[in-house]
């Protein structure tokens, strides 16, 4: 029996971008020692205090159906957190709890895109973005942020692509580039959204990982609160990737309809996970800083290593847990470089092409292993690049 066109065309007829990751995992399954610098999975686990809070809640009986919009106290806490960080009036009716940021992205686009609507997103992009848009029946339309502009999207490029579109998805701090969108960039994007009557969906799951500059939520810009849906998550900020808990913040009417969607799809998030998230948020900045510190430290380590060579160029690493490295001097594509590095040195990095055409000739390195091993792997990558560059010359 045939399956739906929607489900069979989630990847647009091409790769889902995870080919090299899957190859590395297959090598590991065969007993080959592979250094994995591929996905954004912390090398520390969820803090034991959070797990203890989760256990107490579960053993205390919070294992039945939880409130679909989310436990009220958690929604109030998220609202207060967002208001304190952005200055935008935010109440409990502006928040819905979701099963992670990915579910939030799906729900947000379901809320603002009808079947066949064009939905804009910035290239380079997190690998699931185009499939998420297709999953709600939207037509993905990429807007390239170019390497020569340090991967800051230009308002003129967004404007040129915006005619007839329903929404624009942005992500800052950015995965995969590590770039934090500047205020000029975001003001330009806000102007385009208002001129073309676009919804803005802002993926802010890396907001606690900013190494240079300042994270600005576009919902805080003039005229944007009523047309912006913000995606948040506990995954990156609190190392709770497997707990699958996040939120959407937006206008009350949109959140009310998103509650209807959740009622007919996920039916909410387990109460004991919400209680653990509430505990974690109430621990405040010290816990978030502890989770972020290894990436801050490894970024500085990487900067020192990369400063000692002239083949691999570091894209400004302003935030998130990744480095985007320009390897075009080797004469290789990002995909070719990553494949060869894996085959010869058993180091797995993600090809830039996994994240869109704009990142061709780059590789993304996740800073997610212990410091010494990370430094050794990065030094090997640089030596490998230099060798390839000599051969190309």
UniProtKB/TrEMBL annotation:
<dbReference type="InterPro" id="IPR015424">
    <property type="entry name" value="PyrdxlP-dep_Trfase"/>
</dbReference>
<dbReference type="InterPro" id="IPR004838">
    <property type="entry name" value="NHTrfase_class1_PyrdxlP-BS"/>
</dbReference>
<dbReference type="InterPro" id="IPR004839">
    <property type="entry name" value="Aminotransferase_I/II_large"/>
</dbReference>
<keyword id="KW-0663">Pyridoxal phosphate</keyword>
<dbReference type="GO" id="GO:0006520">
    <property type="term" value="P:amino acid metabolic process"/>
</dbReference>
<keyword id="KW-0032">Aminotransferase</keyword>
<dbReference type="GO" id="GO:0004069">
    <property type="term" value="F:L-aspartate:2-oxoglutarate aminotransferase activity"/>
</dbReference>
<dbReference type="Pfam" id="PF00155">
    <property type="entry name" value="Aminotran_1_2"/>
</dbReference>
<dbReference type="InterPro" id="IPR015421">
    <property type="entry name" value="PyrdxlP-dep_Trfase_major"/>
</dbReference>
<comment type="similarity">
    <text>Belongs to the class-I pyridoxal-phosphate-dependent aminotransferase family.</text>
</comment>
<feature type="domain" description="Aminotransferase class I/classII large">
    <location>
        <begin position="33"/>
        <end position="375"/>
    </location>
</feature>
<keyword id="KW-0808">Transferase</keyword>
<dbReference type="InterPro" id="IPR050596">
    <property type="entry name" value="AspAT/PAT-like"/>
</dbReference>
<protein>
    <recommendedName>
        <fullName>Aminotransferase</fullName>
        <ecNumber>2.6.1.-</ecNumber>
    </recommendedName>
</protein>
<dbReference type="GO" id="GO:0030170">
    <property type="term" value="F:pyridoxal phosphate binding"/>
</dbReference>
């Amino acid at each position: 029996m045939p399956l739906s066109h929607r489900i069979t065309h989630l990847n647009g007829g091409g790769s889902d971008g995870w080919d090299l990751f899957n190859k590395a995992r297959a090598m590991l399954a065969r007993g080959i020692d592979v250094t994995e610098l591929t996905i954004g999975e912390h090398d520390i686990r969820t803090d034991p205090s959070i797990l203890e809070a989760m256990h107490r809640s579960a053993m205390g009986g919070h294992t039945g159906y939880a409130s679909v919009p989310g436990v009220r106290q958690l929604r109030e806490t998220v609202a207060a957190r967002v208001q304190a960080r952005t200055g935008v009036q935010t109440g409990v009716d502006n928040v819905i709890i979701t099963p992670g940021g990915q579910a939030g992205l799906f729900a947000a686009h379901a809320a603002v895109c009808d079947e066949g609507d064009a939905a804009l997103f910035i290239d380079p992009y997190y690998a699931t973005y185009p499939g998420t848009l297709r999953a709600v029946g939207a037509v993905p339309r990429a807007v390239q942020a170019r390497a020569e502009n340090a991967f800051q999207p230009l308002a003129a490029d967004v404007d040129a692509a915006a005619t007839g579109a329903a929404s624009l998805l942005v992500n800052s701090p950015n995965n995969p580039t590590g770039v934090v969108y500047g205020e000029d960039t975001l003001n330009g994007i806000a102007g385009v959204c208002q001129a073309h009557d676009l919804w803005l969906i802002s993926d802010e799951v890396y907001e606690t990982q900013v190494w240079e500059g300042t994270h600005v939520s576009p919902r805080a810009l003039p005229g944007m609160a009523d047309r912006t849906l913000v995606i948040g998550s506990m995954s990156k900020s609190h190392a709770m990737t497997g707990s699958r808990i996040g939120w959407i913040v937006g206008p009350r009417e949109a959140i009310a309809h998103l509650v209807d969607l959740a009622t007919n799809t996920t039916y909410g998030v387990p109460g004991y996970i919400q209680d653990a998230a509430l505990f974690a948020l109430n621990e405040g900045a010290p816990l978030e800083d502890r989770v972020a510190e290894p990436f801050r430290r490894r970024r500085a380590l990487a900067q020192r290593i990369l400063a000692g060579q002239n083949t691999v160029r570091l894209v400004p690493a302003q935030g998130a847990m990744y480095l985007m490295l320009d390897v075009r001097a080797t004469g290789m594509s990002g995909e070719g470089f990553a494949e060869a590095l894996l085959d010869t040195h058993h180091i797995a990095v993600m090809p830039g092409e996994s994240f869109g055409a704009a990142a061709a000739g780059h590789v993304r390195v996740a800073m997610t292993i212990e410091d010494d091993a990370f430094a050794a792997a990065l030094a090997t990558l640089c030596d490998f690049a230099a060798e390839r560059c000599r051969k190309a010359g």
